[in-house]
Amino acid sequence: MAGDINKNGWLRIVGLGPGADALITPEVSAVLSAATDVVGYVPYVDRVAPRPGLVRHGSDNREEIRRAEQALQLTADGCRVVVVSSGDPGVFAMAAALFEALEKAGPEWRSLDIQVLPGISAMLAASARLGAPLGHDFCCINLSDNLKPWGVIERRLRLAAEADFAMAFYNPRSRARPEGFARALELLRQACGPQRLIAFARAVSTPEESILVTTLGEAEPEMADMRTLVMVGSSQTRRIECPAGPWVYTPRSAS
Ligand SMILES: C[S@@+](CC[C@H](N)C(=O)[O-])C[C@H]1O[C@@H](n2cnc3c(N)ncnc32)[C@H](O)[C@@H]1O
């Protein structure tokens, strides 16, 4: 990256929420309306309607650093740039990639006008659908081993189970790596027992939404895909049977 900084440019790193337009914050809608350029993974850029004066730069998965550098360059050129992620931009998404690129760039890039605008993360949208599974202490783990070794994931799963956290899992399973989630389920079954509650919240807030609540003993790896947020309860998490389906919640106190 090189060049003089044009002070008219700004960069907003935003989250589009889990899918429904109603879950995009007004703050994010406002910067999208003012943008000259939208940068992101193709399916997320496609969620921003085309309009005159807006250039949409969609790129492939796993191109985060190149995309971040492109966004910094456009901003330095004086464009009004919005980098889009799904959910929240700081949760397994573009904000960290942007700061990795900024840190590597020369000191002159640090005067760019940059803001991160929050979005509703899949974990929070799924939690609301289920009831209140995150009502007490919890942790969240990305089950993809693209950017970390599988051994690190297994260690974190074991320690989270030992600490009796409720757990939220992003990126549980993809076609490229179907075996990892089966191993994670087996580890959790051993550590937490077969009666422990597990929920599969798929495509939350979209027309394809589905919610499945079961136990680790009954769970199958095929219940998750890349559009699923998986939650495993703590030992205190319980379900309330209701005609419209179960509520899942974790009481606020623990002994
Ligand atoms: C790369 S991560 C991006 C997370 C995003 N930044 C967020 O805060 O939700 C993609 C993962 O988020 C989860 N996810 C995203 N949207 C979802 C939705 N509408 N319903 C369920 N899970 C979703 C899935 O686990 C998916 O594999």
Morphology call: elongated
Q: Using the coordinates shown, work out and report the CATH topology of the largest domain.
A: Methyltransferase, Cobalt-precorrin-4 Transmethylase, Domain 2
Assembly state of the chains shown: single chain
**Main beta-sheet annotation:** 5 strands, parallel
Q: What is the CATH architecture annotation of the largest domain?
A: 2-Layer Sandwich
**What small-molecule ligands were found?**
S-adenosylmethionine
Count of distinct strands: 13
Overall tally of domains: 2
Q: Would you state the CATH class of the largest domain?
A: Alpha Beta
CATH superfamily of the largest domain: Tetrapyrrole methylase, C-terminal domain
Low-confidence stretches: none
H/E order of the elements?
A: EHEHEHEHEHEEHEHEEEEE
- The total of helices stands at 7
Kindly provide the radius of gyration, computed on alpha-carbon positions and rounded to a whole number of angstroms: 20 Å
Helical fraction: 25-40%
* Ends apart, CA distance between termini: 54 Å
Trace the largest sheet across and list its strands. Answer: 3-2-4-1-5
| Proportion of beta-strand residues | 15-25%
Q: Structural class, from helix and strand content?
A: alpha/beta
